[in-house]
From TrEMBL:
It comes from Halioglobus maricola. The keyword Protein biosynthesis does not apply. GO terms for molecular function: ATP binding; ATP hydrolysis activity. This is ABC transporter ATP-binding protein. Pfam families: ABC_tran (PF00005). The lineage of its organism: Bacteria, Pseudomonadati, Pseudomonadota, Gammaproteobacteria, Cellvibrionales. Keywords: ATP-binding, Nucleotide-binding. Gene3D superfamilies: P-loop containing nucleotide triphosphate hydrolases.
Length: 340
């Protein structure tokens, strides 16, 4: 039967089998990794010609958690994930994943990770069960074990009734569930999810995240890339990326707390005009309207209370100024060039 999808493990074996595809200057210098780290990188870089797609990234990703890469299009999320999986050779740096040096030991890593791409990598002409059977054979699962896993996952992800449906005839949310089932068929310790919710509606996104927390509850580690703030906020920890650089990392609530006192909301009429006036002040980093309010991020470093400062700096008018709780979007704006 002809297939139209692109399976991850159908990529050339040469990717995996090269004895040591790493350039000598970036072979692993250290083999020590703390027991709680699923992933550890030092000076990790990938350059495509002059473009620094990923530049000098240091990461320590704990096991048993959901770790997020938050960044806009082109910030290097996919490139980073592909290097961590051993699918792309770094230009420089050290990578350890599950205690293995990558890419040298990528072959040994292969059976311990699952990878779900934003396009879901399904075979449209195969049914749900055929997709699963095919991937089980690629993972090398014995027939009996494969059948048990397939039945378990069909049940777990509510796909029993659609087992004979072709992937092409499934909705976005159903395809997403199938892609997650396929990526976890071989019970990997570590899951890489590259923008897994970009093609699904909010309800399916919510269910999908619940499934991720179930997997974490079973001891899995999950690395997920996203450009949605609300998704990033669900992660235990995250790294904010921009133009291949790591701008900030930490727990979402800790990152938001760091901005406490610097976010101000203005409610009133003529918000577009107030926005321009606010942006002309040197203490204002950014201003963006959200419904009936103008959200203003201040630069900090000033001893005066930001709300008070704005009240005295803006011309009098029919509006109210209040300090607001920082959001992850504020964190993102504060640590990227999004305000410029
Ligand atoms: N094989 C390649 N050759 C040349 N440039 C590349 C290659 N792969 C990625 N890039 C470039 O590297 C940069 C980072 O791309 P990457 O796909 O990693 O970003 P991303 O954050 O995953 O983006 P998106 O959210 O759009 O998927 C981009 O400028 C991209 O064009």
């Amino acid at each position: 039967m002809p297939v139209t999808g692109h399976g991850w493990f159908t990529w050339p074996n040469s990717i995996w089998n090269r004895a040591n595809p790493y350039p000598p200057e970036c072979r692993s210098r250290s083999t020590s990794v703390t027991i709680d780290s699923a992933i550890s990188t030092r000076g990790l870089s990938k350059h495509f010609g002059k473009l620094k797609a990923v530049n000098d990234i240091e990461l320590e990703i704990p096991s048993g958690q959901i770790y997020g890469f938050l960044g806009p299009n082109g910030s290097g999320k996919t490139t980073l994930i592909r290097m961590l999986c051993g699918l792309l050779t770094p230009t420089a740096g050290d990578v350890q994943v599950l205690g293995l040096n990558i890419p040298e030991q990528a072959e040994a890593l292969r059976s311990r990770i699952g990878y779900m791409t934003q396009k879901f990598a399904l075979y449209d002409d195969l049914t749900v069960r055929e997709n699963m059977r095919f991937m089980a054979s690629i993972y090398g699962l014995p027939r009996r074990e494969a059948n048990q896993r397939i039945e378990h996952l069909l049940d777990r992800y509510n796909m029993g009734a659609m087992r004979d449906r072709r992937a092409a005839a499934m909705s976005g949310g159903q395809r997403q569930r199938l892609a997650l089932a396929v990526a976890t068929l071989h019970s990997p310790d570590l899951l890489f999810l590259d923008e897994p919710t970009s093609a699904v509606d909010p309800e399916n996104r919510r269910d999908f995240w619940e499934s991720l927390f179930d997997l974490v509850d079973e001891g899995k580690t999950i690395l997920v890339s996203t450009h949605y703030m609300d998704e990033a906020e669900r992660c235990h920890r995250l790294a904010i990326l921009e133009t291949g650089e790591l701008r900030k990392s930490g727990k979402p609530d800790q990152l938001m707390r760091e901005l406490e006192g610097l976010v101000v909301e203005i409610e009133g009429s003529d918000l577009r005009q107030i926005k321009n006036q606010a942006l002309s002040l040197p203490q204002v980093r950014s201003a963006a309207q959200q419904g009936l309010r103008l959200r203003v991020l201040m630069r900090g470093g000033d001893s005066q209370d930001p709300a008070q400062l704005l009240r005295s700096a803006l011309p009098p008018g029919d509006y109210e100024i209040k300090t607001a709780r920082p959001s992850l979007e504020d964190v993102f704006v504060a640590c990227t060039a999004g305000d410029e």
